């Protein structure tokens, strides 16, 4: 219509009322009071009894702007009510998206609830499994395309949904690295609903802005999960590092993404040394390989596998022993508040908190005696108080961890099965390694330091479980649990590559 007006083909605009022409009082006023008169166009609003030809000055300059402003306010009020209703649905874990995430579909009885689409869900599980096995994002996309599996966009269309993605092309869309990463990082597959990631600038502008992650609305356990929390955590760690296939075997190295130089922190790279008819595989520091410093940190593949395999078996054994003690502790002691007091980490945090609060108390005496100025007092007191609050939060997290372990059990059935399989492990494989080991550091002195997953659980079991059993006259069981480290936080199992049998040691801190 505006195009016809500007082309001179229209000389009169008739609407039911002013709100039908527009609810933005600034734009509506500009057209009615400036643009239309300049182009010689008559404007009529029937129910508002406005005619630009016969309207007097009062109607044009007073009544018209007021009515447009009221119409604008009504629009703003509706926008506020809609946002409020959406916020309530967010907090209740209701899915308000137009389409369900790939792997799910909307329930037939409740459009705000997700249920598993078995065909698509199986593809999601395969994507996570392939990533754990070491495939790169592009390799996973190529594999899906070669198998003829429809991409999420094409799959939605095949189901009869009127789905239109952000990109359009002449042919059928396929899988890509971006799509794979979006699936691998989406917490919806854990059974959690995460919404409110974007918001409109305001009700007059359609543009959306991305909100900080801290402002997203996350509600846990709103629907059935497709992947386990353990697999999801492993994948998030693997996504932070680069991975490539071996040019010889065409498959990724079992240590891809978890083997690092202990000194410079860069990934180790795989190198094959050939001599006559033999070939040996070594791992060396990538920094040294690029000629940018550091040293080789060379270690042979077969020796590393032997060390890691033996270490995983020992760790699994220790974990299962601690779990046995922890389970017995749960039978002896059901009162969490009593058990929590035995945890060593909570005790350490409490001592440190008391230290900072004591320093705060001492500052008052120092201020009165003139040891510190008022400005120094305020600065130090603020710092000590903040540190005390941070330690309080840390203690609450530790207590929550113990509560969850007592509520859900120390280990899930799937994780427990993995540990049990590792006890009899003969040869290390990619899936087992990436599921249990977060990082392997190689030092120049041939020391191999392994950082395992689940050490927060291990620390609580080693601290809480053992202490409670000891208090229940089961002291001999404590001695049988081995000489593993009882420090809370991240547990490091340091292995010397030279001896026949690995030697346990601690390295670093939490």
Summarize the structure.
The protein has 510 residues and is of the alpha+beta class. The chain has 18 helices and 16 strands. The radius of gyration is 33 Å and the shape is extended.
Main β-sheet, spatial strand arrangement: 10-14-15-16
- Give a short account of the largest sheet: 4 strands, mixed
Top CATH class of one domain? Alpha Beta
Are there runs of 5+ residues with pLDDT below 50, and where?
Answer: 332-338, 464-510
Question: Average pLDDT, to the nearest integer?
Answer: 75
Strand content: 5-15%
Using only C-alpha atoms, the radius of gyration works out to 33 Å
Describe the structure.
- 49% of the residues lie in helices and 14% in strands.
- With 510 residues, it is an alpha+beta fold.
- Among the domains are: 2-91, Resolvase, N-terminal catalytic domain (Rossmann fold, 3-Layer(aba) Sandwich), CATH 3.40.50; 104-165 and 173-238, Hect, E3 ligase catalytic domain fold; 303-334 and 412-496, no CATH class.
- Mean pLDDT is 75; it is low at 332-338 and 464-510.
């Amino acid at each position: 219509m505006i195009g016809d007006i500007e082309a001179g083909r229209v000389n009169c605009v008739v609407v039911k009322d002013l709100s039908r022409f527009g609810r933005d009082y600034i734009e509506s006023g500009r057209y009615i009071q400036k643009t239309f008169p300049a182009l010689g166009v008559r404007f009529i609003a029937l129910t508002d009894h406005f005619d630009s030809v016969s309207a007097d000055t009062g109607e044009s300059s007073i009544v018209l702007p007021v009515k447009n402003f009221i119409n604008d306010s009504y629009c703003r009020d509706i926008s506020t009510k809609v946002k409020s209703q959406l916020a309530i649905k967010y907090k209740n874990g209701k899915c308000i998206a137009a389409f369900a995430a790939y792997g799910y579909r909307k329930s037939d009885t409740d459009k705000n609830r997700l249920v598993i689409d078995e065909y698509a869900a199986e593809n999601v599980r395969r994507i996570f499994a392939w990533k754990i096995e070491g495939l790169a994002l592009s390799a996973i996309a190529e594999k899906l395309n070669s198998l003829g599996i429809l991409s999420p966009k094409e799959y939605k269309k095949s189901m009869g949904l009127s789905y239109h993605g952000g990109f359009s092309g002449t042919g059928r869309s396929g899988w890509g690295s971006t799509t794979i990463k979006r699936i691998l990082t989406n917490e919806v597959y854990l059974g959690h609903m995460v919404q409110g990631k974007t918001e409109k600038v305001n009700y007059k502008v359609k543009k959306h802005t991305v909100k900080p992650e801290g402002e997203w609305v996350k509600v846990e356990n709103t629907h059935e999960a497709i992947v386990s929390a353990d697999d999801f955590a492993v994948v998030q760690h693997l996504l932070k590092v680069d991975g490539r296939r071996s040019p010889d075997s065409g498959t990724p190295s079992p240590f891809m993404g978890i083997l690092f130089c202990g000194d410079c922190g860069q990934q180790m790279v795989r190198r094959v040394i050939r001599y006559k008819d033999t070939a040996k595989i070594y791992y060396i520091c990538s920094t040294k390989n690029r000629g940018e410093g550091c040293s080789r940190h060379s270690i042979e593949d077969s020796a590393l596998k032997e060390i890691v395999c033996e270490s995983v078996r020992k760790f699994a054994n220790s974990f299962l022993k601690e779990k046995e003690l922890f389970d017995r502790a749960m039978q002896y002691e059901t009162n969490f508040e009593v058990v929590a007091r035995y945890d060593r980490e909570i005790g350490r945090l409490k001592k440190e908190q008391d230290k900072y609060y004591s320093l705060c108390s001492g500052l008052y005496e120092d201020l009165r005696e003139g040891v510190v100025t008022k400005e120094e007092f305020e600065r130090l007191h603020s710092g000590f108080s903040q540190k005390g609050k941070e330690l309080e939060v840390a203690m609450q997290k530790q207590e929550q961890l113990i509560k969850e372990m007592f509520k859900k059990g120390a280990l899930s059935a799937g994780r427990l099965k993995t540990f049990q399989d590792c006890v009899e492990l003969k040869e290390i494989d990619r899936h087992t390694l990436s599921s249990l080991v977060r990082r392997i550091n190689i030092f120049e002195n041939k020391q191999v330091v392994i950082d395992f997953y689940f050490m927060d659980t291990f620390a609580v079991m080693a601290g809480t479980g053992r202490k409670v059993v000891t208090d229940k006259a089961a002291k001999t069981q404590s001695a049988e649990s081995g000489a593993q480290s009882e420090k809370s936080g991240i547990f490091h199992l340091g292995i010397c590559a030279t001896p026949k049998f690995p030697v346990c040691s601690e390295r670093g801190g939490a």
